[in-house]
Specification:
With 466 residues, the chain is of the alpha/beta class. It is built from 15 helices and 23 strands. The strands form six sheets. Strands 13-14-15-12-11-17-18 form a seven-stranded mixed sheet, sandwiched between helices. Strands 8-7-6-9-10-21 form a six-stranded mixed sheet, with helices on both faces. β11, α10 and β12 form a beta-alpha-beta unit. The structure holds NADP nicotinamide-adenine-dinucleotide phosphate (NAP). InterPro entries: Ald_DH/histidinol_DH, Ald_DH_C, Ald_DH_CS_CYS, Ald_DH_CS_GLU, Ald_DH_N, Aldehyde_DH_dom.
């Protein structure tokens, strides 16, 4: 059974993943409609880019205020269409505001022209010009965070944005459009278009000035190939198989287990930077596993609209088959199931929080992105073994070490071929530092100065007065 089905070729039927009820039927954007929108955006961008950065920033700040004023309703929409527990929906909406604070503090400085040679016969400076009309094809799992990382930064930099939310977060995408327009962003500068992957495909074929994608490696690779001939900027924020190593010197094993479990199970494990595999020193392994299982057992699983719920339904029903396959493969190769391992019977896409121990890197659960409430735990006997296991992956998003010894942790983190590393924390994104993936986890960076410069092109001026 598909969670979201195309009722006919012109509408998108949206179902609540907690109870399979239809919550909306949305008209899909047509190919002709898309062409008109793009022509309008092309025109709108010219005027938008003439406005000052401060002026554009003021609109973004107003947008942030409107989002906060309406956050209860917006959280309810997010929970209804993705199944995200309501407290986590509220956290996401509140947390994403830090992108706006970050832009307020830095955008003017980072988008201003830079004079590099101010004396002598030839003056030299850099001017940062917007790219033009960019496409933002986005994911459903954290639509506020990953959406804001792209469209807010792109807009402040003077671009027009064609935003295609995932079909699993389409209602939230429409709310972004509503409040951006209400905040003063012209209707021909930001547009949200509704549709499934076929609409995404049409966007790839359209004349865009840049592609900014958040989603899976498979779709990211497809996009990279499809737009390569255009030679326009391409940014890919993709999946991960993020490792966490718990060394034998952690001061508080129980606290390490609680933090690791939260990193693995927050948002039902549907985070790009969720902890996806855990390596634990053999000296503390038994205690860590016991504390970890106790913690996961304490999670309230069920109705995502209940403020006590920590684990709601999976957003996408087909993910349960992948999780079942990972469990079967792990058990076949010698893992032990400590908790869960199957769907919860009844309505909705519920899956028991699942803990597998005695895992090793031959298992799919330690190699392939799970994107669900499942974790594999492996015993290691040295830092060297942990480093080798953590590095044995096709992905490169994040890696974490829990250790009381900073030097020891830094030595391990230096070895990691990932865009982000964590010491005594995990599953964390900050606008102050770049967010980027290596290998199959992506290309380019959002957030920080890199994240804003991604939406401009430098023009070099050589100026000689005669
Ligand atoms: P997905 O299936 O790859 O879809 C992502 C977007 O691409 C959706 O809007 C989707 O539309 C669209 N799409 C599908 N086929 C397309 C095509 N042929 N051409 C153009 N666009 C197309 O990924 P997802 O399930 O939404 O997101 C989960 C993945 O995103 C995970 O791998 C996760 O790790 C990754 N992620 C990464 C980050 C990061 O910052 N690195 C953040 C969040 C998520 P429809 O949904 O309408 O089909």
């Amino acid at each position: 059974m598909l969670l979201y089905t195309m009722q006919d070729n012109s509408t998108l039927v949206i179902k609540n993943p907690a109870n399979d009820e239809i919550i909306a039927t949305l008209p899909k954007e047509t190919e002709a409609g898309l062409q008109t929108i793009l022509q309008n955006l092309r025109q709108g961008q010219k005027n938008w880019s003439q406005r000052t950065v401060q002026d554009r920033l003021d609109c973004i700040v107003k947008f942030g205020e409107l989002i906060l004023e309406n956050k209860q309703e917006l959280a309810a929409i997010l929970t209804q269409e993705t199944g995200k527990p309501i407290t986590q929906s509220l956290n996401e909406i509140q947390g994403a505001q830090n992108r706006i604070v970050h832009l307020q503090a830095n955008a003017i400085q980072w988008l201003s022209e830079e004079s590099l040679v101010e004396t002598g016969p030839t003056l030299e400076k850099i001017v940062y010009e917007p790219l033009g009309v960019i496409a933002n094809i986005s994911a459903w799992n954290f639509p506020y965070n990953v959406g804001f990382n792209v469209f807010l930064y792109a807009l402040v930099a003077g671009n027009a944005v064609l935003y295609k939310p995932s079909e699993y977060a389409a209602l939230t995408g429409l709310q972004f459009e509503k409040y951006l327009h209400e905040a003063g962003i012209p209707t021909d500068v930001f547009r949200c278009v509704i549709g499934d992957g076929r609409l995404g495909q049409q966007i790839l074929e359209a004349p865009m000035d840049g592609y900014f994608f958040t989603g899976s490696y498979a779709t990211g690779l497809h996009i990279a190939k499809a737009v390569a001939h255009k030679l326009v900027p391409l940014q890919l924020e993709l999946g991960g198989k993020d490792a966490l190593y718990v060394s034998d010197d952690v001061v508080d094993v129980k606290q390490a287990a609680i933090s690791a479990a939260e990193g693995a199970f927050y948002n039902n494990g549907q985070s790009c930077c969720a902890v996806e595999r855990i390596y634990v020193s053999d000296k503390i392994y038994e205690q860590f596993v016991a504390d970890f299982v106790t913690e996961v057992k304490s999670y309230v699983v069920g109705d995502p609209t209940d403020i006590k719920t920590f684990i709601g339904p999976l957003t996408r029903q087909p993910q349960t088959a992948l999780l079942n396959e990972q469990v079967a493969d792990a058990l076949d190769k010698g893992a032990q199931l400590k908790l869960g391992g199957k769907e919860i019977a009844g309505q909705g896409n519920f899956y028991y929080p699942t803990v597998l121990i005695e895992c090793d890197n031959r298992m799919k659960v330690m190699q392939e992105e799970s994107f669900g409430p499942i974790i594999g735990i492996q015993k290691v006997s040295s830092d060297e073994e942990a480093i080798a296991c953590m590095q044995d992956t096709e992905y490169g998003l994040t890696a974490a070490v829990f250790s009381a010894n900073e030097q020891r942790a830094m030595r391990i983190l230096k070895e990691m071929n990932t865009g982000t590393v964590y010491w005594n924390c995990c599953d964390r994104v900050s606008p102050n530092v770049p967010w980027s993936g290596r290998k199959k986890s992506g290309l380019g960076a959002t957030l920080s100065i890199q994240g804003i410069r991604a939406f401009v092109q430098p023009k070099a001026y050589h100026l000689r007065k005669l």
